[in-house]
Amino acid sequence: MKSSILSFLAATATAAVTMSNTTTTTIKPFSLSAPPNTDIWRKPPMHNAFNASTYPEQLPTYTLKNFQRAQLSFELPPSDQLRQYDQAGLLLHVTKPGVPDNQTKWIKTGIEFYYGKPYVATVGCDAWADWSLTPMPEFKNGTMPGATIEARRESDALGNSLWIYWIIKDEAGKEVSRQPLREVTWVLAEEYERWSVSIAGYVCRPTTAGGDGMLEAEFKDGLEIETLNHA
């Protein structure tokens, strides 16, 4: 396992910095494309799609209890080139040996195009998926929708949560504010702490209406992953 992690870092990471309590791994900027009929979505009574394009191809994987945060920035094509449900963003795929593929758990958060507008969207899937949309009020039609998204472990008097943030930056790329999008409580419950989490950028184009054209997204700052160093 240790050698495979080192091989992954050599192939894809621009830096892996270890502090006393955490290790931060930065994966190089990348682009990613997906054909029509790709999605990550699970809805009763029986729909279960998990065939989005992801990067890195060998997803960095950690014990869930060691996960601290993940952040990425990305852009989609101009809005006049987007279709219903086109989307890209950050994927956290939660797995455990012996759990069937159709019962793994996941969280995806990014931008989704819905009825002619881009939204910052978050979907969490424990048994089945849910979905929330946050408007992008300053978006100008015809430009390229983009965002910086972060998922991070946080604690309060009631316990642990995974918080999803939309990070707003100025023209120089400096963070000026962060908008809370979702608090996900189940993923850090004690019964899941020995599960693994795989982390990636993702792109998918669920609808086939509009032809066979690919959807491409640019992840211009790569992917940053921070993990805790405890055993």
Main features:
5% helix; mainly beta; 231 residues; seven-stranded antiparallel β-sheet; disordered N terminus; Jelly Rolls
Quickly describe the structure.
This protein is mainly β and 231 residues long.
What is the percentage of strand-forming residues? Answer: over 45%
Number of helices, where a helix is a run of at least 4 consecutive DSSP H or I residues? 1
- Whole-angstrom Rg: 17 Å
Instruction: Provide the number of structural domains.
Output: 1
Estimate the global geometry from the Cα principal axes.
globular
Give the CA-CA distance, first to last residue: 15 Å
Q: What is the number of strand segments?
A: 18
| Major beta sheet summary | 7 strands, antiparallel
Question: What class, by secondary structure content?
Answer: mainly beta
- Low-confidence segments, given as residue ranges, are 1-7
Report the CATH architecture: Sandwich
At the fold tier of CATH, the topology name is: Jelly Rolls
Molecular structure report:
The protein has one helix spanning 2-12; strands at 13-18, 22-27, 30-34, 40-43, 47-50, 53-55, 61-63, 67-75, 87-95, 105-114, 117-125, 132-135, 146-156, 159-169, 175-184, 196-204, 215-219, 223-228. It is globular and about 50 Å long. It starts with a helix and ends with a strand. A 7-stranded antiparallel beta sheet has the order 1-2-18-8-13-14-15. Strands 6, 7, 9, 10, 11, 12 and 16 form a 7-stranded antiparallel beta sheet that branches. A hairpin with a 2-residue loop joins strand 13 (146-156) and strand 14. With 231 residues, it is mostly beta strands. The chain has one domain: Jelly Rolls (Sandwich). Mean pLDDT is 92; it is low at 1-7. The chain contains 1 helix and 18 strands.
